[in-house]
Amino acid sequence: MGKNKQEDRREYRRRRRIRNQILAYLTLIVLLALIIFGGFQLIRLATAGMKQQPQDAPVAENDAEPTPEEAGVISTPDPVDDFSEPSPTPEEAEEPALDPALQALLDGMTVEQKVDGLFIVSPEALTNVAKATKAGDGTKAALGQYAVGGILYSSDNVTGADQFKEMVGTTKDMYRELYSRNVLTMVREEGAVNTVAGNTTKVEPVSSAPEIGESGNRENATEAFETIGNYLSEYGIDVDLMYVAAVKTEDDSYLKDRCFSDDADIAASMTGAAVEGMRKTNAYACVAAFPGEGGLKTDPNKGAGATDKSLEDLQSCEMLPFRSAVEAGAPMVMVSAMQAPSAGAEGPAMLSETMVSQQLRSELGFEGVIITAPIGQIPSSAGVDAGSAATQAITAGADMIVVLKHDDFETARQALIDAVNDGSISEERINESLIRIYTMELDKM
Questions:
Q1: Based on the structure, what is the number of domains in the chain?
Q2: Of 23, 201, 249, 279, which has the fewest CB atoms closer than 10 Å, so is most exposed?
Q3: Could you tell me if residue 78 is inside a domain?
Q4: Taking the model in full, what pTM does it have?
């Protein structure tokens, strides 16, 4: 019995020893695995840190930079030049690519054609006739010589509904045949002041701007200009020059019954509603004439129209309808020939970088097409001829130039071509305006 007990104790101790050995081996294996895993993680983190560390880390003041030998680093040969493309800057990366169709269009145009695309001309300025009421061989020949961007029609060009539709439609067909794109056709249509509506066409004019403003109902402005946009589209007209973005701040303003209101807030609200109405149609709204002519007693296109208001005064009153128009999505704005010396525009506003680029483009955030008032009607007191007016307008930031006389057109056109050829105006600057113009009318091209 004693012997058996001893053998049992020895067997128990042997099994316990084996179990303890197994546990020790398992513990060792787990520890080794943890050490290996931890070492791998440390190596990975160190490698990532080295990749993120700037190559030109700043050295602490008064500390000498260690040599490669002191740092324990083995010198390596200078790297071979990297011929891969450099990474784009954030600005370059965010810049959207130009539409391939627009890029192809610009690439296929001569300097002369690009300059032509910046002009809005009357049919008379295009064809050099006294009065144009038909698009015939003379129009086709003129279009072949001048690839103008737009044609502005007046009541002189309208003798009847069918006649005007045919004149506009034939002109557009000729242009598309020549250049495979659209030419912008324009009129002035304000309600009581019209090019198309009237006795000759039997189109019923809508309510006048003051009547709409006095109603106090924005829907009336929206409906009126939706009506105008729809019937203009039937005549093939693309753009309506809406001379309604003005606050009548003077009782004897030359605009008289062409402003929505003498209250800036009402005028701004109605102007925005009018633009909304035009946007429901196939016609574009061009609001006129920045920074606001409601306080002028003299038409700046017929005399030395000027205001002595400060920039702050204009911003708080006359510019409000334009801000409303921009917020409503107006694609075009015309800048006035008025002078505002106290607001930073010693000469015509449309030639002023302060008015065109700083106020309209930057301050109001307008990204669309900026056009000038007719440059041939700038008062002689301004001391600017058609050529200087054209180059100054483009330099100031305008995109399109309105010309009503043939001689003025040729003078202005040649001045711009010369400016591009001698480098005083870059071709890239011309392209910027063309991109705005063609982007606006992309759906019509």
A1: 1
A2: 23
A3: no
A4: 0.78
